Fold:
Amino acid sequence: MATTPYLSYRMKQPKTLFLVAIALLPLILVSCSLFGGASISGGWAGTTFRDGIIYACSRDGRVVAINSSNQSQQWDYTFTSTTIYATPIVDGDLVYVGTYSGQVCALTIDRGIERWVYPRTGSIGAIVGTPVVANETIYISSSDGRVYALDTTYGDLKWKSEPLADKLWTSPKVMGATLYVSTFDGHIYALSVETGERLAWSFEAAAGFASSPVSDGDTIFLGSFDRHLYAVKIGSDVPMWKFPKEKPAGNWFWASPIVNEGIVYAGCLDGKLYAIKAETGEKLWEFDAGDPIISSPVLVDNLLIVANEAGNVYVINPETGEGERIKNPENDDKPTINAQIKASFCAHDGLVYIRDENSKNNQLHVVDIDKGEVIWSLNLTE
Amino acid sequence: MDVWYLIIGNPVLNVLIALSHILGGSFGLAIIALTIIIRLISWPLTKRQLNSTKALQDMQPKIQELQKKYGKNQQKLQQEMMKLYKEAGVNPLGCLWPMLIQFPIWIALYQAIMRALATTPENLLDLAQRLYSWEIVSQAIPLNSHFLGLNLGSQGNLLLAIVVGGTMWVQQKMTQAPAVDPRQESTSRIMLLMMPLMFGLLCLSFPAGLGLYWAVSNIIGIIIQYFATGGWGYLKFRSPFSSTPVKGK
Structure:
Protein backbone atom coordinates (compact mmCIF):
# COMPACT_ATOMS: atom_id res chain seq x y z
CA MET A 1 0.00 0.00 0.00
CA ALA A 2 2.89 2.29 0.66
CA THR A 3 3.76 2.32 -3.06
CA THR A 4 0.27 3.22 -4.26
CA PRO A 5 0.70 7.05 -4.61
CA TYR A 6 3.99 6.57 -6.43
CA LEU A 7 2.45 4.05 -8.78
CA SER A 8 -0.58 6.14 -9.55
CA TYR A 9 1.76 9.06 -10.30
CA ARG A 10 3.74 6.84 -12.62
CA MET A 11 0.62 5.71 -14.37
CA LYS A 12 -0.44 9.27 -15.09
CA GLN A 13 3.00 10.50 -16.02
CA PRO A 14 3.22 9.19 -19.61
CA LYS A 15 -0.08 10.74 -20.59
CA THR A 16 0.78 14.01 -18.86
CA LEU A 17 4.18 14.23 -20.49
CA PHE A 18 2.66 13.36 -23.81
CA LEU A 19 0.14 16.14 -23.46
CA VAL A 20 2.87 18.55 -22.33
CA ALA A 21 4.97 17.67 -25.34
CA ILE A 22 2.07 18.11 -27.75
CA ALA A 23 1.09 21.40 -26.10
CA LEU A 24 4.65 22.65 -26.40
CA LEU A 25 4.72 22.38 -30.16
CA PRO A 26 2.04 24.98 -30.86
CA LEU A 27 3.67 26.98 -28.09
CA ILE A 28 6.90 26.98 -30.08
CA LEU A 29 5.02 28.38 -33.05
CA VAL A 30 3.29 31.05 -31.00
CA SER A 31 6.47 31.97 -29.10
CA CYS A 32 8.48 32.29 -32.27
CA SER A 33 5.91 34.56 -33.82
CA LEU A 34 5.60 36.59 -30.62
CA PHE A 35 9.29 36.93 -29.91
CA GLY A 36 10.22 38.00 -33.38
CA GLY A 37 10.29 36.43 -36.73
CA ALA A 38 9.97 37.21 -40.33
CA SER A 39 7.58 40.04 -39.69
CA ILE A 40 7.02 42.55 -42.41
CA SER A 41 5.44 45.69 -41.06
CA GLY A 42 4.04 48.26 -43.41
CA GLY A 43 7.16 49.19 -45.31
CA TRP A 44 8.69 52.60 -44.75
CA ALA A 45 8.26 54.44 -48.00
CA GLY A 46 9.10 58.11 -47.71
CA THR A 47 7.28 61.16 -48.98
CA THR A 48 7.74 63.14 -52.20
CA PHE A 49 6.61 66.68 -52.95
CA ARG A 50 5.95 68.00 -56.44
CA ASP A 51 3.89 71.02 -57.59
CA GLY A 52 1.85 71.36 -54.42
CA ILE A 53 1.08 67.64 -54.15
CA ILE A 54 2.51 65.27 -51.54
CA TYR A 55 2.88 61.67 -52.61
CA ALA A 56 2.99 59.22 -49.72
CA CYS A 57 2.49 55.51 -49.22
CA SER A 58 0.53 54.06 -46.36
CA ARG A 59 1.33 50.96 -44.37
CA ASP A 60 -1.57 49.14 -46.01
CA GLY A 61 -0.10 49.48 -49.48
CA ARG A 62 -1.85 52.63 -50.71
CA VAL A 63 -0.26 55.42 -52.67
CA VAL A 64 -1.95 58.67 -51.76
CA ALA A 65 -1.72 62.07 -53.46
CA ILE A 66 -2.56 64.93 -51.11
CA ASN A 67 -3.00 68.58 -51.94
CA SER A 68 -0.70 70.38 -49.52
CA SER A 69 -2.67 73.63 -49.54
CA ASN A 70 -6.02 72.22 -48.40
CA GLN A 71 -4.98 68.77 -47.14
CA SER A 72 -7.46 67.10 -49.46
CA GLN A 73 -6.83 63.73 -51.00
CA GLN A 74 -6.51 63.98 -54.78
CA TRP A 75 -6.48 60.26 -55.45
CA ASP A 76 -5.27 56.98 -54.09
CA TYR A 77 -4.11 53.72 -55.59
CA THR A 78 -4.03 50.48 -53.63
CA PHE A 79 -1.54 47.67 -54.06
CA THR A 80 -3.07 44.54 -52.61
CA SER A 81 -1.09 42.03 -50.57
CA THR A 82 2.13 43.97 -50.55
CA THR A 83 3.98 46.70 -48.74
CA ILE A 84 6.05 49.58 -50.05
CA TYR A 85 9.55 50.46 -48.87
CA ALA A 86 10.70 52.53 -51.83
CA THR A 87 9.78 56.19 -51.81
CA PRO A 88 7.49 57.08 -54.74
CA ILE A 89 9.24 59.25 -57.29
CA VAL A 90 7.73 61.76 -59.68
CA ASP A 91 9.01 62.49 -63.14
CA GLY A 92 7.03 64.23 -65.85
CA ASP A 93 3.39 63.23 -65.57
CA LEU A 94 3.99 59.93 -63.83
CA VAL A 95 4.56 58.67 -60.29
CA TYR A 96 6.72 55.55 -60.06
CA VAL A 97 6.25 53.09 -57.24
CA GLY A 98 8.31 49.96 -56.55
CA THR A 99 6.67 47.34 -54.36
CA TYR A 100 7.97 44.69 -51.99
CA SER A 101 6.18 42.10 -54.13
CA GLY A 102 8.61 42.97 -56.91
CA GLN A 103 6.68 45.15 -59.35
CA VAL A 104 7.24 48.66 -60.61
CA CYS A 105 4.16 50.65 -61.39
CA ALA A 106 3.74 54.00 -63.16
CA LEU A 107 0.66 56.02 -62.14
CA THR A 108 -0.56 59.24 -63.68
CA ILE A 109 0.02 62.20 -61.37
CA ASP A 110 -3.38 63.77 -62.00
CA ARG A 111 -5.67 60.80 -61.31
CA GLY A 112 -3.48 57.94 -60.09
CA ILE A 113 -4.41 55.70 -63.00
CA GLU A 114 -2.05 52.87 -63.80
CA ARG A 115 -0.08 53.63 -66.97
CA TRP A 116 2.12 50.56 -66.94
CA VAL A 117 3.46 47.88 -64.68
CA TYR A 118 6.70 45.94 -64.91
CA PRO A 119 6.94 43.03 -65.24
CA ARG A 120 3.65 42.64 -67.08
CA THR A 121 3.15 39.27 -65.38
CA GLY A 122 4.96 37.82 -62.37
CA SER A 123 7.53 39.84 -60.49
CA ILE A 124 11.19 40.64 -60.11
CA GLY A 125 12.71 40.43 -56.62
CA ALA A 126 11.35 42.59 -53.81
CA ILE A 127 12.06 46.30 -54.28
CA VAL A 128 13.33 48.02 -51.13
CA GLY A 129 15.64 50.77 -52.40
CA THR A 130 14.07 53.83 -53.99
CA PRO A 131 14.39 53.77 -57.81
CA VAL A 132 16.10 56.59 -59.68
CA VAL A 133 14.96 58.32 -62.86
CA ALA A 134 17.45 59.79 -65.32
CA ASN A 135 17.57 60.10 -69.10
CA GLU A 136 13.98 58.86 -69.56
CA THR A 137 14.96 55.67 -67.81
CA ILE A 138 14.01 54.37 -64.41
CA TYR A 139 16.72 52.34 -62.63
CA ILE A 140 15.61 49.85 -60.02
CA SER A 141 17.69 47.68 -57.72
CA SER A 142 15.98 44.45 -56.84
CA SER A 143 16.23 41.71 -54.25
CA ASP A 144 17.19 39.29 -57.02
CA GLY A 145 20.55 41.09 -57.00
CA ARG A 146 20.12 42.82 -60.34
CA VAL A 147 19.63 46.40 -61.47
CA TYR A 148 16.82 46.91 -63.98
CA ALA A 149 16.54 49.81 -66.43
CA LEU A 150 13.07 50.52 -67.79
CA ASP A 151 11.77 53.00 -70.26
CA THR A 152 9.83 55.61 -68.26
CA THR A 153 7.06 56.08 -70.82
CA TYR A 154 6.07 52.49 -71.52
CA GLY A 155 7.83 50.48 -68.84
CA ASP A 156 9.72 48.39 -71.39
CA LEU A 157 12.89 46.70 -70.22
CA LYS A 158 16.01 48.38 -71.58
CA TRP A 159 18.44 46.13 -69.78
CA LYS A 160 19.00 44.20 -66.62
CA SER A 161 22.40 43.76 -65.08
CA GLU A 162 24.08 40.50 -64.20
CA PRO A 163 23.41 39.48 -60.59
CA LEU A 164 25.65 41.75 -58.51
CA ALA A 165 24.88 40.39 -55.04
CA ASP A 166 22.60 38.07 -53.14
CA LYS A 167 20.13 40.95 -52.94
CA LEU A 168 20.13 44.69 -53.57
CA TRP A 169 18.21 46.78 -51.07
CA THR A 170 19.97 50.07 -51.74
CA SER A 171 19.15 52.77 -54.27
CA PRO A 172 21.35 53.17 -57.32
CA LYS A 173 23.11 56.46 -57.99
CA VAL A 174 23.37 57.80 -61.53
CA MET A 175 26.30 60.10 -62.32
CA GLY A 176 26.57 60.99 -65.99
CA ALA A 177 26.96 57.83 -68.03
CA THR A 178 27.61 55.64 -65.01
CA LEU A 179 25.37 54.05 -62.44
CA TYR A 180 26.81 53.17 -59.04
CA VAL A 181 25.28 50.64 -56.73
CA SER A 182 26.40 49.46 -53.30
CA THR A 183 25.94 45.91 -52.09
CA PHE A 184 25.53 44.15 -48.76
CA ASP A 185 28.68 42.16 -49.47
CA GLY A 186 30.79 45.32 -49.50
CA HIS A 187 31.07 46.27 -53.16
CA ILE A 188 30.44 49.41 -55.10
CA TYR A 189 29.85 48.50 -58.73
CA ALA A 190 29.91 50.87 -61.67
CA LEU A 191 27.53 50.03 -64.53
CA SER A 192 27.00 51.62 -67.89
CA VAL A 193 23.67 53.46 -67.89
CA GLU A 194 23.28 52.57 -71.56
CA THR A 195 23.83 48.83 -71.42
CA GLY A 196 24.00 47.80 -67.77
CA GLU A 197 27.38 46.20 -68.31
CA ARG A 198 29.83 46.33 -65.47
CA LEU A 199 32.58 48.86 -65.99
CA ALA A 200 36.19 48.28 -65.10
CA TRP A 201 36.17 50.02 -61.74
CA SER A 202 34.66 48.54 -58.62
CA PHE A 203 35.42 49.00 -54.96
CA GLU A 204 35.56 46.29 -52.33
CA ALA A 205 35.42 46.83 -48.57
CA ALA A 206 35.99 44.35 -45.75
CA ALA A 207 32.41 44.75 -44.53
CA GLY A 208 29.11 45.17 -46.34
CA PHE A 209 27.50 48.51 -47.19
CA ALA A 210 24.32 49.32 -45.34
CA SER A 211 23.33 52.53 -47.07
CA SER A 212 22.81 53.76 -50.61
CA PRO A 213 25.65 55.73 -52.19
CA VAL A 214 25.51 59.51 -52.39
CA SER A 215 28.03 61.58 -54.26
CA ASP A 216 29.79 64.90 -54.20
CA GLY A 217 32.02 65.50 -57.20
CA ASP A 218 33.89 62.30 -57.81
CA THR A 219 33.54 61.00 -54.27
CA ILE A 220 30.97 58.51 -53.05
CA PHE A 221 29.83 58.48 -49.42
CA LEU A 222 28.08 55.54 -47.84
CA GLY A 223 27.66 53.72 -44.55
CA SER A 224 28.96 50.26 -43.75
CA PHE A 225 28.02 47.40 -41.44
CA ASP A 226 31.43 47.86 -39.77
CA ARG A 227 30.02 51.04 -38.17
CA HIS A 228 32.02 53.40 -40.34
CA LEU A 229 31.05 55.92 -42.97
CA TYR A 230 33.17 55.51 -46.08
CA ALA A 231 34.36 58.15 -48.54
CA VAL A 232 35.48 56.49 -51.75
CA LYS A 233 37.09 58.32 -54.65
CA ILE A 234 35.77 56.91 -57.92
CA GLY A 235 38.58 54.96 -59.55
CA SER A 236 40.39 54.27 -56.29
CA ASP A 237 40.84 50.90 -54.62
CA VAL A 238 41.24 52.28 -51.12
CA PRO A 239 38.83 54.49 -49.20
CA MET A 240 39.67 58.19 -49.08
CA TRP A 241 38.72 58.07 -45.44
CA LYS A 242 36.66 56.16 -42.96
CA PHE A 243 34.73 57.85 -40.21
CA PRO A 244 35.28 57.56 -37.29
CA LYS A 245 38.98 57.14 -37.89
CA GLU A 246 39.82 54.97 -34.92
CA LYS A 247 37.06 53.48 -32.82
CA PRO A 248 33.90 52.60 -34.80
CA ALA A 249 30.68 54.52 -34.20
CA GLY A 250 28.03 53.16 -31.87
CA ASN A 251 26.12 51.47 -34.68
CA TRP A 252 25.57 51.36 -38.43
CA PHE A 253 25.22 54.38 -40.68
CA TRP A 254 21.94 53.05 -42.08
CA ALA A 255 20.53 56.23 -43.62
CA SER A 256 22.20 57.71 -46.65
CA PRO A 257 24.13 60.84 -45.68
CA ILE A 258 23.61 64.21 -47.33
CA VAL A 259 26.40 66.45 -48.57
CA ASN A 260 26.25 70.23 -48.60
CA GLU A 261 29.04 72.73 -49.18
CA GLY A 262 31.78 70.26 -48.45
CA ILE A 263 30.21 68.86 -45.31
CA VAL A 264 28.72 65.38 -44.94
CA TYR A 265 25.80 65.05 -42.54
CA ALA A 266 25.36 61.44 -41.53
CA GLY A 267 22.73 60.03 -39.22
CA CYS A 268 23.69 56.91 -37.32
CA LEU A 269 21.72 54.17 -35.61
CA ASP A 270 23.63 55.10 -32.44
CA GLY A 271 21.31 58.13 -32.28
CA LYS A 272 23.85 60.73 -33.36
CA LEU A 273 24.02 63.02 -36.34
CA TYR A 274 27.60 63.65 -37.38
CA ALA A 275 28.93 66.58 -39.41
CA ILE A 276 32.10 65.53 -41.22
CA LYS A 277 34.43 67.40 -43.52
CA ALA A 278 34.01 65.79 -46.94
CA GLU A 279 37.65 66.27 -47.90
CA THR A 280 39.32 64.88 -44.81
CA GLY A 281 36.79 62.89 -42.79
CA GLU A 282 37.38 65.17 -39.82
CA LYS A 283 34.49 65.45 -37.41
CA LEU A 284 33.13 68.98 -37.05
CA TRP A 285 30.43 68.26 -34.54
CA GLU A 286 27.95 65.66 -33.41
CA PHE A 287 24.37 66.01 -32.27
CA ASP A 288 22.83 63.39 -30.00
CA ALA A 289 19.22 62.71 -30.93
CA GLY A 290 18.97 60.01 -28.29
CA ASP A 291 17.39 57.29 -30.43
CA PRO A 292 18.43 55.62 -33.69
CA ILE A 293 18.37 57.78 -36.79
CA ILE A 294 16.90 55.69 -39.59
CA SER A 295 15.86 58.34 -42.11
CA SER A 296 18.22 60.72 -43.87
CA PRO A 297 18.35 64.34 -42.69
CA VAL A 298 17.11 67.12 -44.95
CA LEU A 299 18.17 70.74 -45.36
CA VAL A 300 15.48 73.40 -45.15
CA ASP A 301 16.40 77.07 -45.45
CA ASN A 302 19.92 76.33 -44.27
CA LEU A 303 18.66 74.36 -41.29
CA LEU A 304 19.14 70.66 -40.80
CA ILE A 305 16.08 68.61 -39.97
CA VAL A 306 16.61 65.21 -38.46
CA ALA A 307 14.18 62.73 -36.95
CA ASN A 308 14.86 59.79 -34.70
CA GLU A 309 13.07 56.47 -34.55
CA ALA A 310 11.24 57.46 -31.37
CA GLY A 311 9.37 60.18 -33.27
CA ASN A 312 11.33 63.26 -32.26
CA VAL A 313 12.09 65.86 -34.89
CA TYR A 314 15.02 68.24 -34.38
CA VAL A 315 16.03 71.46 -36.07
CA ILE A 316 19.81 71.81 -36.08
CA ASN A 317 22.13 74.63 -36.98
CA PRO A 318 24.46 73.07 -39.57
CA GLU A 319 27.34 75.32 -38.57
CA THR A 320 27.36 74.73 -34.84
CA GLY A 321 25.50 71.46 -34.43
CA GLU A 322 23.20 73.02 -31.87
CA GLY A 323 19.66 71.78 -32.13
CA GLU A 324 16.22 72.04 -30.73
CA ARG A 325 13.45 69.51 -30.54
CA ILE A 326 10.13 70.35 -32.08
CA LYS A 327 7.55 69.96 -29.37
CA ASN A 328 4.54 67.71 -29.46
CA PRO A 329 1.51 69.96 -30.04
CA GLU A 330 -0.50 68.21 -27.33
CA ASN A 331 1.98 67.02 -24.74
CA ASP A 332 5.47 68.44 -24.26
CA ASP A 333 6.69 65.26 -22.60
CA LYS A 334 5.91 63.12 -25.62
CA PRO A 335 7.94 62.88 -28.85
CA THR A 336 7.16 65.38 -31.59
CA ILE A 337 5.13 62.71 -33.34
CA ASN A 338 3.49 59.97 -31.30
CA ALA A 339 4.84 57.19 -33.48
CA GLN A 340 8.08 55.85 -34.88
CA ILE A 341 9.76 57.54 -37.83
CA LYS A 342 11.63 55.30 -40.25
CA ALA A 343 10.66 56.70 -43.63
CA SER A 344 12.69 59.32 -45.42
CA PHE A 345 10.98 62.68 -45.53
CA CYS A 346 10.91 65.61 -47.89
CA ALA A 347 10.73 69.36 -47.46
CA HIS A 348 9.38 72.26 -49.46
CA ASP A 349 9.03 75.92 -48.69
CA GLY A 350 9.79 75.62 -44.98
CA LEU A 351 7.52 72.63 -44.48
CA VAL A 352 8.66 69.08 -43.78
CA TYR A 353 6.44 66.12 -44.74
CA ILE A 354 6.92 63.10 -42.49
CA ARG A 355 5.17 59.75 -42.55
CA ASP A 356 4.93 57.91 -39.25
CA GLU A 357 4.94 54.16 -38.61
CA ASN A 358 1.82 53.95 -36.50
CA SER A 359 0.34 50.58 -37.40
CA LYS A 360 -3.23 51.46 -36.47
CA ASN A 361 -3.49 55.06 -37.50
CA ASN A 362 -0.77 55.64 -40.03
CA GLN A 363 -0.42 59.39 -40.59
CA LEU A 364 1.33 62.05 -42.59
CA HIS A 365 2.56 64.99 -40.51
CA VAL A 366 3.52 68.41 -41.71
CA VAL A 367 6.05 70.32 -39.64
CA ASP A 368 6.44 74.07 -40.07
CA ILE A 369 10.09 74.83 -39.39
CA ASP A 370 9.60 78.57 -38.85
CA LYS A 371 6.87 78.04 -36.31
CA GLY A 372 8.62 75.00 -34.85
CA GLU A 373 5.45 72.94 -34.68
CA VAL A 374 3.40 70.25 -36.35
CA ILE A 375 0.77 72.20 -38.25
CA TRP A 376 -1.41 69.36 -39.46
CA SER A 377 -1.62 65.59 -39.65
CA LEU A 378 -3.61 63.38 -41.95
CA ASN A 379 -4.60 59.71 -41.91
CA LEU A 380 -3.10 57.66 -44.68
CA THR A 381 -4.70 54.32 -43.96
CA GLU A 382 -8.25 53.61 -45.01
CA MET B 1 11.23 40.60 -23.06
CA ASP B 2 14.45 42.58 -22.56
CA VAL B 3 15.69 40.00 -20.05
CA TRP B 4 15.05 37.27 -22.59
CA TYR B 5 17.19 39.03 -25.20
CA LEU B 6 19.86 39.91 -22.66
CA ILE B 7 20.27 36.38 -21.36
CA ILE B 8 19.45 34.13 -24.30
CA GLY B 9 18.33 35.87 -27.49
CA ASN B 10 21.23 38.23 -28.13
CA PRO B 11 24.04 35.91 -26.95
CA VAL B 12 22.82 33.13 -29.28
CA LEU B 13 22.53 35.61 -32.16
CA ASN B 14 26.00 37.08 -31.67
CA VAL B 15 27.70 33.73 -31.11
CA LEU B 16 26.06 32.41 -34.26
CA ILE B 17 27.24 35.36 -36.32
CA ALA B 18 30.75 35.22 -34.85
CA LEU B 19 30.93 31.49 -35.59
CA SER B 20 29.82 32.19 -39.13
CA HIS B 21 32.72 34.59 -39.61
CA ILE B 22 35.21 32.16 -38.06
CA LEU B 23 33.95 29.36 -40.31
CA GLY B 24 34.60 31.24 -43.52
CA GLY B 25 31.26 33.00 -43.77
CA SER B 26 29.21 29.79 -43.79
CA PHE B 27 26.06 30.25 -41.76
CA GLY B 28 25.22 26.57 -42.17
CA LEU B 29 28.52 25.51 -40.59
CA ALA B 30 27.88 28.06 -37.82
CA ILE B 31 24.54 26.40 -37.05
CA ILE B 32 26.25 22.99 -36.94
CA ALA B 33 28.99 24.36 -34.66
CA LEU B 34 26.38 25.95 -32.39
CA THR B 35 24.51 22.66 -32.23
CA ILE B 36 27.70 20.93 -31.09
CA ILE B 37 28.29 23.65 -28.48
CA ILE B 38 24.74 23.32 -27.16
CA ARG B 39 25.17 19.56 -27.05
CA LEU B 40 28.39 19.99 -25.04
CA ILE B 41 26.73 22.39 -22.61
CA SER B 42 23.83 20.01 -22.09
CA TRP B 43 26.18 17.04 -21.75
CA PRO B 44 25.57 16.49 -17.98
CA LEU B 45 21.87 16.17 -18.71
CA THR B 46 22.48 13.93 -21.70
CA LYS B 47 24.80 11.78 -19.62
CA ARG B 48 22.16 11.32 -16.98
CA GLN B 49 19.67 10.38 -19.62
CA LEU B 50 22.12 7.92 -21.18
CA ASN B 51 22.81 6.31 -17.83
CA SER B 52 19.10 5.93 -17.41
CA THR B 53 18.76 4.33 -20.83
CA LYS B 54 21.69 2.03 -20.13
CA ALA B 55 20.16 1.02 -16.82
CA LEU B 56 16.88 0.27 -18.59
CA GLN B 57 18.69 -1.90 -21.08
CA ASP B 58 20.46 -3.75 -18.29
CA MET B 59 17.13 -4.31 -16.64
CA GLN B 60 15.68 -6.04 -19.68
CA PRO B 61 16.27 -9.61 -18.46
CA LYS B 62 14.57 -8.74 -15.17
CA ILE B 63 11.68 -7.06 -17.02
CA GLN B 64 11.21 -10.07 -19.25
CA GLU B 65 11.29 -12.27 -16.19
CA LEU B 66 8.56 -10.17 -14.61
CA GLN B 67 6.53 -10.28 -17.80
CA LYS B 68 6.73 -14.05 -17.79
CA LYS B 69 5.89 -14.23 -14.12
CA TYR B 70 3.01 -11.73 -14.00
CA GLY B 71 1.95 -11.74 -17.65
CA LYS B 72 -1.65 -12.51 -16.79
CA ASN B 73 -1.91 -10.01 -13.96
CA GLN B 74 -1.33 -6.62 -15.52
CA GLN B 75 -1.77 -4.67 -12.32
CA LYS B 76 0.81 -6.75 -10.49
CA LEU B 77 3.15 -6.51 -13.48
CA GLN B 78 2.91 -2.72 -13.45
CA GLN B 79 3.55 -2.59 -9.75
CA GLU B 80 6.58 -4.84 -9.97
CA MET B 81 8.05 -2.98 -12.94
CA MET B 82 7.58 0.36 -11.33
CA LYS B 83 9.20 -0.98 -8.22
CA LEU B 84 12.10 -2.13 -10.35
CA TYR B 85 12.40 1.30 -12.00
CA LYS B 86 12.25 3.01 -8.64
CA GLU B 87 14.94 0.79 -7.15
CA ALA B 88 17.22 1.45 -10.12
CA GLY B 89 16.44 5.20 -10.00
CA VAL B 90 15.29 5.16 -13.61
CA ASN B 91 12.77 7.42 -15.30
CA PRO B 92 11.40 5.67 -18.39
CA LEU B 93 10.40 8.96 -19.97
CA GLY B 94 13.50 10.92 -18.99
CA CYS B 95 14.32 11.47 -22.66
CA LEU B 96 11.77 14.30 -22.77
CA TRP B 97 13.60 16.58 -20.39
CA PRO B 98 16.64 17.41 -22.55
CA MET B 99 14.14 18.29 -25.28
CA LEU B 100 12.15 20.54 -22.98
CA ILE B 101 15.31 22.27 -21.78
CA GLN B 102 16.27 22.98 -25.37
CA PHE B 103 12.96 24.73 -25.94
CA PRO B 104 14.28 28.28 -25.19
CA ILE B 105 17.28 27.53 -27.40
CA TRP B 106 14.96 26.74 -30.31
CA ILE B 107 13.15 30.03 -29.93
CA ALA B 108 16.45 31.92 -29.63
CA LEU B 109 17.82 30.11 -32.64
CA TYR B 110 14.70 30.80 -34.67
CA GLN B 111 14.99 34.48 -33.85
CA ALA B 112 18.73 34.44 -34.54
CA ILE B 113 18.26 32.84 -37.95
CA MET B 114 15.51 35.20 -39.00
CA ARG B 115 17.39 38.25 -37.80
CA ALA B 116 20.88 37.22 -38.87
CA LEU B 117 19.77 36.30 -42.35
CA ALA B 118 17.74 39.51 -42.50
CA THR B 119 14.97 38.00 -44.53
CA THR B 120 13.04 41.27 -44.30
CA PRO B 121 14.20 44.91 -44.02
CA GLU B 122 12.70 45.03 -40.52
CA ASN B 123 14.82 42.06 -39.47
CA LEU B 124 17.97 43.74 -40.72
CA LEU B 125 17.17 46.98 -38.94
CA ASP B 126 16.29 45.11 -35.78
CA LEU B 127 19.57 43.20 -36.04
CA ALA B 128 21.49 46.45 -35.70
CA GLN B 129 20.14 46.95 -32.20
CA ARG B 130 21.10 43.47 -31.06
CA LEU B 131 24.67 43.10 -32.24
CA TYR B 132 27.61 43.35 -29.90
CA SER B 133 30.32 45.77 -30.90
CA TRP B 134 32.70 42.90 -31.72
CA GLU B 135 34.63 43.44 -34.92
CA ILE B 136 34.17 39.79 -35.81
CA VAL B 137 30.41 40.29 -35.75
CA SER B 138 30.27 43.46 -37.81
CA GLN B 139 32.51 41.96 -40.46
CA ALA B 140 30.24 38.95 -40.82
CA ILE B 141 27.12 40.97 -41.68
CA PRO B 142 25.22 40.23 -43.81
CA LEU B 143 25.38 36.47 -43.81
CA ASN B 144 25.27 34.07 -46.69
CA SER B 145 22.00 32.19 -46.43
CA HIS B 146 22.97 29.32 -48.74
CA PHE B 147 24.34 26.03 -47.46
CA LEU B 148 24.43 22.66 -49.20
CA GLY B 149 21.74 23.74 -51.62
CA LEU B 150 19.51 24.97 -48.81
CA ASN B 151 18.34 28.53 -48.35
CA LEU B 152 18.57 28.65 -44.58
CA GLY B 153 16.09 31.49 -44.31
CA SER B 154 13.38 29.90 -46.43
CA GLN B 155 10.64 27.51 -45.42
CA GLY B 156 9.09 24.38 -46.82
CA ASN B 157 12.05 22.11 -47.50
CA LEU B 158 10.47 18.66 -47.68
CA LEU B 159 13.72 16.69 -47.73
CA LEU B 160 14.93 18.42 -44.58
CA ALA B 161 11.57 17.78 -42.91
CA ILE B 162 11.90 14.06 -43.69
CA VAL B 163 15.47 14.01 -42.34
CA VAL B 164 14.37 15.79 -39.15
CA GLY B 165 11.38 13.48 -38.64
CA GLY B 166 13.38 10.36 -39.47
CA THR B 167 16.35 11.11 -37.23
CA MET B 168 14.04 12.10 -34.39
CA TRP B 169 12.16 8.83 -34.72
CA VAL B 170 15.41 6.83 -34.63
CA GLN B 171 16.71 8.74 -31.61
CA GLN B 172 13.44 8.36 -29.73
CA LYS B 173 13.12 4.70 -30.57
CA MET B 174 16.65 4.10 -29.31
CA THR B 175 15.83 5.60 -25.93
CA GLN B 176 12.18 4.76 -25.39
CA ALA B 177 11.85 2.15 -22.68
CA PRO B 178 9.44 -0.75 -23.22
CA ALA B 179 5.89 -0.15 -22.07
CA VAL B 180 4.63 -1.99 -19.05
CA ASP B 181 1.10 -2.55 -20.29
CA PRO B 182 -0.88 -2.35 -23.54
CA ARG B 183 -2.34 1.05 -22.69
CA GLN B 184 1.07 2.60 -22.05
CA GLU B 185 2.31 0.85 -25.17
CA SER B 186 -0.40 2.58 -27.14
CA THR B 187 0.61 5.99 -25.73
CA SER B 188 4.29 5.31 -26.36
CA ARG B 189 3.57 4.23 -29.91
CA ILE B 190 1.58 7.39 -30.64
CA MET B 191 4.30 9.51 -29.08
CA LEU B 192 6.98 7.77 -31.06
CA LEU B 193 5.17 8.70 -34.25
CA MET B 194 3.62 11.99 -33.23
CA MET B 195 6.78 13.81 -32.18
CA PRO B 196 8.76 13.13 -35.38
CA LEU B 197 5.66 13.88 -37.41
CA MET B 198 5.06 17.17 -35.63
CA PHE B 199 8.68 18.22 -35.90
CA GLY B 200 8.66 17.28 -39.57
CA LEU B 201 5.64 19.51 -40.07
CA LEU B 202 7.17 22.29 -37.97
CA CYS B 203 10.25 22.03 -40.14
CA LEU B 204 8.09 22.84 -43.16
CA SER B 205 6.82 26.03 -41.59
CA PHE B 206 10.10 27.23 -40.06
CA PRO B 207 13.26 28.44 -41.77
CA ALA B 208 15.53 25.67 -42.99
CA GLY B 209 18.25 26.86 -40.59
CA LEU B 210 16.19 25.68 -37.63
CA GLY B 211 15.52 22.39 -39.42
CA LEU B 212 19.26 22.03 -39.92
CA TYR B 213 19.76 22.54 -36.18
CA TRP B 214 17.15 19.86 -35.37
CA ALA B 215 18.60 17.40 -37.88
CA VAL B 216 22.19 17.86 -36.69
CA SER B 217 21.13 17.74 -33.05
CA ASN B 218 19.28 14.46 -33.67
CA ILE B 219 22.21 12.94 -35.55
CA ILE B 220 24.63 13.91 -32.76
CA GLY B 221 22.15 12.45 -30.27
CA ILE B 222 22.03 9.17 -32.20
CA ILE B 223 25.84 8.96 -32.37
CA ILE B 224 26.24 9.69 -28.65
CA GLN B 225 23.51 7.23 -27.82
CA TYR B 226 25.09 4.54 -29.97
CA PHE B 227 28.52 4.82 -28.41
CA ALA B 228 27.42 5.50 -24.85
CA THR B 229 24.99 2.59 -24.62
CA GLY B 230 26.99 0.33 -26.90
CA GLY B 231 24.50 -0.15 -29.67
CA TRP B 232 21.14 0.79 -31.11
CA GLY B 233 19.31 0.54 -27.78
CA TYR B 234 15.61 -0.19 -28.27
CA LEU B 235 15.65 0.54 -31.99
CA LYS B 236 15.17 -3.13 -32.88
CA PHE B 237 13.12 -3.94 -29.79
CA ARG B 238 9.66 -5.31 -30.44
CA SER B 239 7.20 -4.74 -27.67
CA PRO B 240 5.32 -7.81 -26.43
CA PHE B 241 2.16 -5.63 -26.46
CA SER B 242 2.55 -4.47 -30.01
CA SER B 243 -0.13 -6.85 -31.26
CA THR B 244 -2.34 -6.61 -28.17
CA PRO B 245 -5.48 -4.56 -28.80
CA VAL B 246 -6.24 -1.92 -26.19
CA LYS B 247 -9.65 -2.32 -24.63
CA GLY B 248 -11.54 0.59 -23.23
CA LYS B 249 -10.19 3.67 -21.54
Q: What stands out?
A: Residues 1-12 of chain A have pLDDT under 50 and may be disordered. Helices of chain A lie at 4-34. The two ends of chain A are 70 Å apart (CA to CA).
